[in-house]
UniProtKB/TrEMBL annotation:
NCBIfam families: PRK08264.1-6
Source organism (scientific name): Mariniblastus fucicola
UniProt KW keywords: Oxidoreductase
Family indicated by similarity: Belongs to the short-chain dehydrogenases/reductases (SDR) family.
UniProt name for this protein: 3-oxoacyl-[acyl-carrier-protein] reductase FabG
TM ranges: none
Gene that this polypeptide is encoded by: fabG_2
Length: 249
């Protein structure tokens, strides 16, 4: 389950800005025939079409709108790679008055949205030979930061679902990739106060397509991520990625 992006069809959620935009551009640079820019507002994708022509196809997709995801999957039924990049972040501590409200919002997009995307696009990936499903998780999926505890909880849940998808979709030949960036130079990163330590989104985009080419599950693209990933490596290899038989006492 390894392949290059050249001559493939790619779909990127949240493709109009930030990491998603750079992922779209990286796919095109690597020779993708077509990239679906999956966005909530189709007008937001117009600059991408102006820049890249008909190699970019806007499609409406909102992670908390199941009908839009189903419709997008029906339209983009020729996909080889689905990159679920879109997500939301609320800066809420566990003791904040809005903690439960924030967690519900983040879970709906970051976790239920992933499940909706996987369910909608898995059949298309299977019919097109397997392909790849890429999920943007975070270092926050394995380390909780108090000032964004609810976000970290949602990303831990999305990472858990991603692990399940890795096993569930293996039989149909779909490579699942879990990406764990640290602070990245995006509007979300700026709003979270990471502008002084954030790194380029190109690191994330490049690492994603390298992982697809190499058949990797875990991706730790930037310096903070690599520090976390290095410490986590033994557990990742010996537990998460290991073929462990479930036993019932």
């Amino acid at each position: 389950m390894t392949f290059e992006a050249k001559d493939k069809t790619v779909l990127v959620t949240g493709a109009n800005r930030g990491i998603g935009k750079v992922i779209l551009e990286e796919a095109l640079q690597r020779g993708a025939t077509k990239v679906y820019a999956a966005v909530r507002d189709l007008d937001s994708a117009k600059p991408l079409v102006e820049a890249h022509g008909d190699r970019v196809v806007p499609v409406r997709l909102d992670l908390n709108d199941p009908a839009s995801i189903t419709a997008a999957a029906e339209l983009a039924n020729d996909v080889d790679v689905v990159v679920n990049n879109a997500g939301v972040l609320k800066q809420s501590e566990a003791t904040s008055d809005d903690a439960i409200e924030s967690l519900k919002f983040e879970m709906d997009v970051n976790v239920y949205g992933l499940i909706r995307v996987a369910q909608a696009f898995a059949p298309a990936l299977k019919s097109n030979g397997g392909g790849a499903l890429v999920q943007l998780n975070s270092v926050a999926s394995v380390k909780t930061f108090a000032n964004m505890a609810t976000y970290c909880a949602s990303k831990a849940a999305s990472y858990s679902i991603t692990q399940g998808l890795r096993d569930s979709l293996r039989e149909q030949g779909t490579l699942v990739v879990s990406v764990h960036p640290g602070p990245i130079q995006t509007d979300m990163g700026h709003d979270a106060g990471f502008q002084d330590i954030a790194e380029s989104p190109t690191l994330v985009a490049s690492a994603i397509f390298d992982a697809i080419a190499n058949g990797q599950f875990h991706v730790w693209p930037d310096s903070m991520a690599q520090q976390v990933g290095g410490a986590y490596q033994s557990f990742a290899e010996n537990v998460v990625e290991a073929n462990m038989e479930e036993s019932v006492a």
